[in-house]
Specification:
Elements lengths: L12 E2 L1 H9 L5 E5 L3 E8 L2 E9 L13 E22 L6 E8 L2 H5 L16 E6 L4 E4 L4 E12 L4 E14 L14 H17 L14 E2 H12 L5 H13 E2 L8 E3 L5 E2 L5 H18 L2 H19 L27 H21 L3 H21 L1 E2 L4 E2 L9 H9 L5 H14 L8 H13 L3 H17 L35 H8 L2
Helix pairs in contact: 1-5, 4-5, 4-6, 4-14, 5-6, 6-7, 6-8, 7-8, 8-9, 8-10, 10-11, 10-12, 12-13
The protein binds alpha-L-rhamnopyranose.
Alpha-L-rhamnopyranose binds next to helix 4.
Length: 521
């Protein structure tokens, strides 16, 4: 699958003042020099791979590498940064260029996989692999790309029979705009909880660059669905609230036709909104602004950006039918989750109600009673519409689309939209777990919403059980940072048809620290 919902006759609308405000908040990246900790061998383990200790890092100095020689370096933890190293020749004077391949992997699988067999639907260029010719030695090499990795492999395609290579001075200058010193340590000694918090924060840290990126390996972009969850986690951890503010101003300053907030923004080669439009993602501008004000009480920003939020509501209301239910479409128009075959209508309706409620709260904060009343009216109509057209009393579920699909995503989002009171929501979630409809959740993003729904419905034990059962299993599988996609029963799962393109440090997966700090202490 790939996201294909391009807006028609796309044109970017620029609000210079907003973009300038965002640029004034451009963060300075903190740098840290990191060296490899040890040399490892990548070995198969079940359906996956693991890294096993092979030698201390110092052994590199005594390891001449000739044709087909290889060495894998372990930097000890996930890094996002710029790599440099030195190649020296040993033996006879080099009579041919060296030809080497470098691979960078967030997980051991990426080192083991054969990239020439890649058959995914998204660009092969995301695979972190380089081929270099080196003509003269010693060669000090600084790679221009930024990599996201823990493991780095050097494979010698060829030297010549007369000389070998020595690899040395390997360094990574790791970068992030998150300052770990800003995080309050957790008041617990539970090692499992501490580890989950630590990996969650590392995921956040490595995604926090000049904006909140979705993943430092891929897509390295500012996606608003990811931003919403990153911001929530940030408020209880790194507290880099100016980075959230910068992202809000970027989204509001670079909109699509009719002032629609785009699904994502590019930073390079210039600041630019993408031509992808997603119903839920545009509405999340409302949520991001609501949550930002709740965390910061920055009234000036609320005031200035509220019209952008209001515009997203207006645009979404245009998608309602005569019963005040969002019209279903068979195009790729709303995200929700990567679950194959998921119908989006019910989830979209619930997100609209969720956003309307937050918009109403913001209107009240701003003292705009007229707006608040208008939103209240729309909340009433869309809630009634949902109860009449989507809710099935006999089945005890919200149905979606013309086929009346029952999915986890639809129920979870209706719980979050608060259409029913808390006890009834708790009953709905228990019914969902008991019935286990086959259209399940596949991303940590959707799991996040399920766990949030459990906590909000007064089911903390169940929430913690699922947190452990999902993120806890990722940890058991060796995660240093949490993944874009994780299916404990199918390690090869990928929304892109090939796991090599998956991102293994992904923003929307970094929320356990939010749950732990908000609900579990
Ligand atoms: C993918 C990325 C991103 C997400 C979108 C919908 O391209 O993983 O994080 O927000 O999908």
């Amino acid at each position: 699958m790939a996201i294909t919902n391009k807006i028609e006759n796309f044109q970017m609308q620029v609000n210079e003042a907003f973009v300038n405000k965002a640029e004034a908040l451009r963060p300075k990246l903190l740098e840290k020099k990191v060296e490899p900790q040890r040399l490892v061998k990548i070995l198969p383990q079940g359906e996956d791979y693991r890294a096993e200790y092979a030698a201390p890092a110092e052994a590199l100095g005594t390891m001449p590498l000739g044709r087909e020689g290889r060495v894998c370096l372990d930097f000890g933890d996930h890094q996002v940064g710029y790599v440099s190293f030195r190649l020296t020749a040993t033996g006879s004077p080099p009579d041919a260029p060296a030809w080497v391949r470098l691979k960078f992997g967030e997980i051991p699988y990426e080192i083991a996989a054969d990239s020439s067999a890649y058959h995914g639907s998204i660009a092969k260029g995301w695979i972190q692999e380089e081929f270099l010719h080196v003509d003269s030695f010693p060669a000090a090499i600084s790679l221009p790309r930024r990599y996201a990795f823990r493991y780095m492999e050097l494979y010698v395609m060829d030297t010549s029979p007369k000389y070998q290579l020595l690899l040395g001075d390997v360094r990574c200058v790791s970068v992030s705009s998150a300052d770990p010193a800003a995080v309050t340590p957790l008041p617990t000694t539970d090692p499992a909880l501490l580890r989950m918090d630590q990996v969650s924060l590392k995921t956040m840290q490595d995604c926090m660059q000049l904006v909140f990126e979705d993943g430092p390996k891929r897509d390295r972009r500012l996606w608003i669905g990811d931003l919403r969850l990153q911001a929530l986690t940030n408020y209880v951890s790194f507290r880099n609230n100016d980075l959230v503010k910068r992202c809000l101003y970027l989204f509001a300053g670079l909109t699509q036709n009719e002032g629609r907030v785009g699904a994502c923004l590019f930073l390079e080669p210039k600041l630019q909104v993408d031509d992808t439009s997603l119903f839920d993602y545009s509405l999340f501008f409302v949520s991001c602004l609501h949550d930002y004000y709740e965390a910061t009480h920055d009234a000036a920003t609320l005031q200035e950006l509220f019209p952008t939020a209001d515009r997203q509501i207006e645009l979404s209301l245009q998608e309602l039918d005569d019963s005040y239910v969002v019209k279903d479409k068979n195009t790729w128009w709303c995200f929700l989750d990567w679950a194959e075959g998921l119908n989006k209508q019910a989830g979209a309706q619930a997100i609209l109600i969720y956003a309307l409620k937050q918009a109403k709260v913001m209107a009240k904060w701003l003292g705009d009673e007229r707006k608040a009343a208008a939103y209240a009216d729309w909340i009433e109509r869309t809630t009634q519409g949902a109860l009449e057209k989507l809710w099935d009393e006999g089945k005890g579920f919200f149905l979606s689309g013309s086929e009346g699909q029952i999915s986890w995503a639809s129920q979870v989002w209706f719980v979050l939209a608060g259409v029913f009171p808390r006890e009834r929501n708790a009953a709905l979630l228990k019914h969902l777990i008991a019935e286990n409809p086959p259209l399940s959740m596949v991303t940590p993003y959707m799991y996040h919403h399920f766990i949030e729904a459990l906590f909000q419905s007064g089911l903390p034990e169940l929430a913690q059980k699922y947190l452990q059962g999902y993120w806890g299993r990722m940890l058991e599988d060796g995660a240093d940072t949490f993944y874009e996609l994780y299916d404990p029963e199918n390690k090869a799962a990928s929304p892109y048809g090939d796991r090599l393109a998956n991102s293994f440090c992904h923003a929307w997966s970094g929320t356990p620290a939010y749950f732990i700090r908000k609900y579990m202490q």
